[in-house]
Amino acid sequence: MMHAPSNKRTAAENGDGGIDVVLMRSLGNGEDLGPIVRYAFECGKPEALLHQLRNVVKKKEVEIEELCKLHYDEFILAVDELRGVLVDAYDLKSSLSSENLRLQEVASALLLKLDALLELYLIKKNVTEAIQTLKVCVQVSKLCLACNMHVANNRFYPALKILDLIEKDYLQNTPLKALRKVIDKQIPAIKLHIEKQVCSEFNDWLLHIRSIAKEIGQLAIGQAASARQGDEEKRAHQREAEEQSRSGVNPVYALDSEHIDEDTVLEFDLAPLYRSHHIHTCLGIQEKFCEYYYNNRLMQLNLDLQISSAQPFLESHQPFFAQIAGFFIVEDRVLRTSKGLLSESQVESLWDSAMSKMKSVVEDQFSHTNTANHLLLIKDFVTLFGATLSRHGFQVTPLLEVLDNSRDKYHELLLSECRKQIGDILTSDTFEQMVIKKEYEYNMNVVSFHLQSSDTVPAFPFIAPFSSSVPDACRVVRSFIEDSVSYLSYGGHINFHDVLKKYLDKLMIDVLNEALLSMIHTGNLGVSQAMQIAANIAVLERTCDLFLWQAAQLCSVPLHLVERPHAGLTAKAVFKASQNAAYNALLNVVDSKLDEYLALMSSINWTADEAPEHANDYIHEIVIYLDLLISTAQQILPLDALYKVGVGALHHISDSIVATFLSESLKRFNLNAIIGIDNDLKMLEAFADERFQSTGLSDFKRDCSFRDCLVESRQLVNLLLSNQPDDFMDPVIREKAYGALDYKKVATICEKLKDSPDRPRRSTENKKMSSCSFVYVIWKWDQETICLLQQAST
């Protein structure tokens, strides 16, 4: 009893209190002690278990002693049983020791194998970890190798995708710090290398796209020119159909499939640009690249807008505008196909800058261009340039306005060239009727200008009513219309027919008509030349409607608008006035020639002793000349002009005869001279009647015939030869028989007809007694009667 606490403390101090408690609980519960024994041996502390068992035994002995005191008898019995148990315990102990020894012998070998196994497990774990590390490193290495290969082969996008994959999925999970550090350091270097390579390729593309921009622009402008030509061919077919419809022929409409073609897509490579843009986007520097692209393209545009002073603009304008067209076609394609690279505002800014420069260039070059054809060539190409870029959505109106502002200068230059051409044409023309020997000449010079009188092809050689200057001038006018339409069309104005009509009038009036008038007024023209000029003007007057119709056709104006009243050219009325001026010039030439023959009247013996039996010599010359004049006029001039020439010539002869009687150089004349003049008039009247009939003028029922043009001289001669000169004082008879005579002229002439009374009687030998009475009466008239005549004339 005294030793029990100390044993407990000893057990507790030895750290075996836990086992003691467990052992006691197991024994108390009657549980199997096998696990506890096995645990003790596994832990290598069987002595402790044995010690605990002893303690348990001691405790139980103490308890037994106590119980024995209470239950002595029972205790004695229990002691006996206990001793038996003790013997069994000792047997068990011996058995356990032996088993332990055998177990130790067996377990030592197993423990060695267990240690080896644990070491192998550790090695396996390390090897597995190493394999996993190597797998990650191998994958990273493979990705790095693939990235290097892509970079080496300029496949930058997959290289960037690999770099992005390494950064996101592998870099932080790479177990090797050294490898992770190397990769982390190389990724920015690779990206920088890719950026430099892409920029280098992009710069090469910039140079390439600028080098082919001119070709792109030329191709696009060529397509616009083809489209314009197709439109013009359609309008030509439409005009032909209208003309056939006007002529009564049913127009045939056909669809020419060869001209139906879609616009060819302009092919140029933007892949390097897209690639660069995409790579920079992947690098996260898209804005930097967009700014770089815009600035470089702006610099290229500024270079393209520079004009070389070493080359004339006429030669350089096509490459200049083709280069700009190509530039903006590329920019339009970039704007529509590359998202985010360009903005509409940036393209508009580029276009505004280019438009301002192009306007100043065109204005400056037009101001220094002094040839209409050069202006037209430049204008045509500029309008094609405008049509090309308007298809791509660019506003070209300001440039077209510059062209419209230059149209006056163009037409002034064109008029100046036409003035020179027409001047050369008129100078080289002999003003003889044009002889056409072949049908193609007839078609070229007559039919093409609608100058034929009928649709029937005449026999050749054909003598045209005009000279060679008429078709040549018509060709100049037609060329002017075509050139004017070429300049005015495709500009800022849709309906330019009125503008063309104004310039056409200016050509016909200020150039052609003025040249003809200058030829009329300043040229030393013969009669046939003056006639031909008058005939030419009449033909040109008729061509005004043709030229207006051609202008309307080229302007696509409906013909019924042209055919309205007061819709014609002003030049038509001007040509009519010029025609009258030509007729007056012709009459002046004729009068001058007649004056040369009438001057022969000075050789007449005005106081002849005998009356002549035949006409005077001068009248023969006049009749021969008039016959040639009328014959020539009949071949050249229309009947109304022929009538004017004949009437004017005969009027001039009649006036000249009367003027001869009034001339101060003629102091006096007698009856015999008057009889000679009467013979002259009869011969002239016979010629006038014959010509009036033979020329067909009598069919037109003119109020005044050729004979009527001689009425004043005839009435004067009739009065001087009249048996009853007093009838002149009778108003009724005077109005009927002497209405063309003037009182004052008659009085002046009567003063010169003074002769002795016996002169008439001597003339009876020539059987002129009926005519002598007037002389006698006039001789009887006193001065008072002559004064009455003079008062009546006043």
UniProtKB/TrEMBL annotation:
Residues 398-752 form the Exocyst complex subunit EXOC6/Sec15 C-terminal domain. InterPro entries: EXOC6/Sec15 (IPR007225), EXOC6/Sec15_C (IPR046361), EXOC6/Sec15_C_dom1 (IPR042045), EXOC6_Sec15_N (IPR048359), EXOC6PINT-1/Sec15/Tip20_C_dom2 (IPR042044). Residues 229-245 have a biased composition (Basic and acidic residues). Residues 227-248 are annotated as: Disordered. Pfam families: EXOC6_Sec15_N (PF20651), Sec15_C (PF04091). It is found in: Cytoplasm, Cytosol. GO terms for biological process: acceptance of pollen; Golgi to plasma membrane transport; intracellular protein transport; pollen germination; pollen tube growth; vesicle tethering involved in exocytosis. Keywords: Coiled coil, Cytoplasm, Exocytosis, Transport. GO terms for cellular component: cytosol; exocyst; membrane. Residues 52-221 form the Exocyst complex component EXOC6/Sec15 N-terminal domain. Component of the exocyst complex involved in the docking of exocytic vesicles with fusion sites on the plasma membrane during regulated or polarized secretion. Involved in polarized cell growth and organ morphogenesis. During cytokinesis, involved in cell plate initiation, cell plate maturation and formation of new primary cell wall. Belongs to the SEC15 family. This is Exocyst complex component. It comes from Musa troglodytarum.
